[in-house]
Amino acid sequence: MQIPMVGLLLATAIGTSALAADKRPPLPTYTQAYTPTTVDERGIWMEADERERAQRDSRSLVKDPALNAYVRGVLCRTVGEDRCRSVRLFIDEVPAFNAFMTPNGAMVVWTGLRLRVRNEAELGAILGHEFGHFELRHSLKDFKSHRTGTDLMAWASILVRNSGNIRYAMIGQMYAFSRDQEREADMTGFQYLARSQYPSSAAADVWEHVMGEADATAIGRRGRAHHKYVAGVFATHQTDLARATYLRAASIEAHDVKPAVVDTHQAAMAKWLPIFLNDQIKLNDFGGSEYLLATLADGTGWTTPLLCARGDLYRERGNPRDLVSAA
Amino acid sequence: MIAFCRAMLVALMAVIAATAPAHAQEKTGIKPGFVLQPGTARIVLMRPSIRVGAQSTGGMYEPNADWTDQAKENIGAALAKAQAGLGNSVVGYVEPVGASSAKVAEYQELFGAVASSVIEYQFFKGNRLPTKKRKDQFEWGLGPDVRTLHGLEMADYALFITTEDHFGSTGRKVLQVFAAMARVGVTAGVHKGFAGLVDLRTGELVWLNADMQMGGDVRDAEGADKRVRQLLEGFPGKPVEAPVSITAVAAAPPIASAH
Predict the structure, then answer these.
(1) Less CB within 10 Å around the terminal CB: N or C of chain B?
(2) Which residue of A has its CA nearest to B18?
(3) Could you state, in order of their start, the residue ranges of all structural domains in chain B?
(4) CB contact, 8 Å: A38 with chain B?
């Protein structure tokens, strides 16, 4: 009699703890085949459609089906099969760290991003962030925020004497709005990642590496490496340090221990690595490129494409001893 | 996102600077000595670029999908009507699908860039580049490879058309009134367009007509007729120039908000 009682009690305890464990904020409501309804939203979708035409016809578009399938696979594993189905994916050969999603559901991933993430989870973290922007319809909200801001500025400039301060405050307000959205997208992306098979700590890892590269670039250009926590008035995003900090805190709180997944990142990159590295080296950013090569070598060891790129990097700089190192 | 932010910044700057409208000094350019006999050429109309929306109180462009759809329909119909008066047959370009569409897109962009250069560095007399200063000179082109575009092998000329309308919102017009009281110049509405003819055998731009303050409300059929008439003003090879359209332009007020 006692044993079942204890069992029942235990079961209730486990039940409540399981309920209590899911204190995670809910994901945005998912709508299949969403179509815009208001004048503003239909307008920005129309513009986005036009831009997507240009993107489709762009010469820098990477059409390789294998690479596209790999990125789409990571997106689907991060945000879920049903959500990712509606996304149209474009990979653009631009050697900078960026990806964006347009209001009509097209995702553009720059190849510089591919070079800087070290595994599927880190790529998933960024794609989840962009998908968060799309799902929360941030472009529309940002458009409205800018319209309200510029409207008030126009009125202030005419009705108020010496309205400089008002206008400055309005501009600051618009950028603050943009930063709030970025933070919201960070946290939404984090939620996707935490619910996926990938470790949620990858979100913070990305930003730590971005900071590392920025430091290396600054030192390479004889500058000073420093990171602020508080974003400036005209910053569109939170600072890298702030993002790394709050995403790290979130991942410690989430405490997700997941079995390691088979990572196909290196395999998917193999064919394109020499091309992307060549793009990177042409950026004339010795410190940053050297840092990037070192982090890549951390994962795989100094493979042929990495050694070749390092040789090119030194040859490009052409200091007397560099030509010896390059050989 | 970046492009969007940049567009916003541009809009922002426009507000801060409260810029005066740009007045084009010349509107039409034609290659010296170029004549097009009626009934001798086959002209292909490239996919027109048409954007219609509103202008917010602060001067931002608010794209409007319904208006743009109406304008595309109306301008298409007006062009078909105007064809009869052009003297030569004009057929719509059938966009290729697949690999060749990228090349077409590139030439569309290139035409846009060349046309803006002509407007900036030829039509503004004071802005002319040293190589463009000779009198009656009009030497611009897209390069001879334009004839290799898919589907243009049998054509002689390509006609490009671009229009952009931002209709001043009520808020913008009220602001304009108050600004006028405070002796500040604020414009309401942007209505610009240009049309160009490219010789497909040489790639030269033989005719360009640009107007930064166009008339005609493209959202209705009548206005679209007027817009097309203005766009094709001075079109080479026209049997008779309609005198109505010329007076319409001359009478346009410096701050037009086209109704």
Answers:
(1) C
(2) A154
(3) 23-250
(4) no
